[in-house]
């Protein structure tokens, strides 16, 4: 194992060996060295390159597969995963109907503006003093009835020349666009949820009374490199929809 | 692999071999044949008993470990996992403060009654016509300020002679009690969330105005055998707390 790369700061790395291998392969994906669809070297090749056992490589690949960063295809090999609309919807759109079933809403872009990040936003997203953010407002509807508004903020430096089709979609899920156009692979989102009365603006868009209870979601999203690439606030009218959360 | 057990209904099992091994081992845990803390046979012993390769056994154990059903201890072996207070709190109590930090509330049992299940409850939980449910109401507080009420319903047949200490805890997490006293290992919960105005009763207990927005969680919980062992409704005052949801 003499040729195993040292950690980047030169200090001994106390993590299990497979976790270190996972980090190295993760970094190649995050840096775009291995693009979505790229075929990874075989397990024996990786084991030899990194000077570790087959078992260690396999365990690292297992971990990357669980995080949806790679895909194993029977008899074909291992590939860097593409963000699919299905995964974007199923994993990152946790809205269900009253019976807990998946919802396929329409999505309408209401506005897209690019404005300076606030001090709070710069601190939270580790952005420089002159950073700009794109602000996308979208409205989701089901059977013509609007039920969810969201405002997404994206660093302009990470997403240059960002555009969304005006008006009603069939628009690709944003996370698919992030990867296809910008090489940004979303791997994790965290949301903090609360209940509050609808503001006049939210009430108007969601066609509900001002002050009526609305579910608010504050989301932060990270890419494969551990960088926060998005913040989002959503407002959900729960008259006909639910937010689903699974614990296991 | 001639000695590999056939599926219970005699039809060929189309799942990958490791998934079939996972089911077999899962069933031994769910049935209580292997109790919490029990040391599993070694990987070679399991491989021989089931007539599969070491790799297949390892993959099945990996899957059980990810589901928190077993624990591997370096140099000591593999054991059926015990439900710990820490896991019960961290995985199954998704309430955070406004900064997203873990909360350690006090919990007070308000009432425990045993009453017949409604028709809807019997259908949802697959219970017989004369089934009884224990109903536990608890109030969580932080620094003496109540912020969450919950009502938990448990089949009396699964949890005979169920009791909770009256008044303020230090009470063990319910999921630890389920396992220690009843051999019921909780592995999965699903919650549907909505926002609504506080009813007079909820408002009184949570010390908030009637009709003020409150976050409502409707939970269903399954044990290792795939049986629904609990239903729960919770009401959260989000003035000082948030519900956290992680997607990855």
TrEMBL record, chains A, B:
Alphabetically ordered keywords of this record: DNA-binding, Transcription, Transcription regulation
Domain of life the protein comes from: Bacteria
The UniProt record lists the keyword Cytoplasm: no
PROSITE patterns: HTH_GNTR (PS50949)
HTH gntR-type domain: residues covered: 15-83
SMART domains: HTH_GNTR (SM00345), UTRA (SM00866)
InterPro entries cross-referenced by the UniProt entry: Bact_HTH_transcr_reg, Chorismate_lyase_/UTRA_dom_sf, Tscrpt_reg_HTH_GntR, UTRA, WH-like_DNA-bd_sf, WH_DNA-bd_sf
The name this protein goes by in its record: GntR family transcriptional regulator
Organism: Roseomonas gilardii
């Amino acid at each position: 194992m003499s040729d195993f790369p040292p950690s980047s700061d030169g200090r001994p790395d106390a993590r299990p060996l497979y976790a270190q291998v996972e980090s190295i392969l993760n970094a190649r994906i995050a840096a775009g060295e291995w693009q979505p669809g790229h075929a990874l070297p075989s397990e024996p090749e990786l084991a030899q390159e990194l000077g570790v056992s087959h078992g260690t490589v396999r365990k690292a690949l297992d971990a990357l597969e669980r995080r949806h960063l790679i895909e194993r295809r029977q008899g074909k090999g291992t590939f860097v995963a593409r963000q699919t609309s299905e995964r974007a919807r199923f994993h990152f759109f946790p809205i269900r109907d009253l019976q807990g079933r998946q919802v396929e809403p329409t999505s309408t872009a209401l506005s897209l503006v690019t404005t300076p990040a606030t001090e709070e936003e710069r601190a939270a997203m580790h952005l420089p003093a002159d950073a700009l953010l794109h602000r996308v407002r979208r409205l989701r509807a089901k059977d013509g009835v609007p039920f969810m508004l969201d405002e997404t903020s994206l660093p302009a430096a990470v997403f240059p020349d960002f555009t969304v089709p005006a008006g009603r979609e069939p628009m690709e899920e944003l996370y698919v666009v992030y990867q296809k156009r910008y090489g940004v692979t979303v791997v994790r989102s965290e949301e903090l949820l609360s209940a509050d009365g609808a503001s006049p603006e939210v009430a108007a868009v969601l066609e509900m009374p001002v002050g009526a209870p609305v579910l608010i979601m504050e989301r932060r999203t990270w890419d494969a490199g551990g960088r926060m690439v998005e913040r989002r606030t959503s407002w959900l009218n729960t008259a006909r929809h639910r937010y689903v959360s699974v614990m296991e």
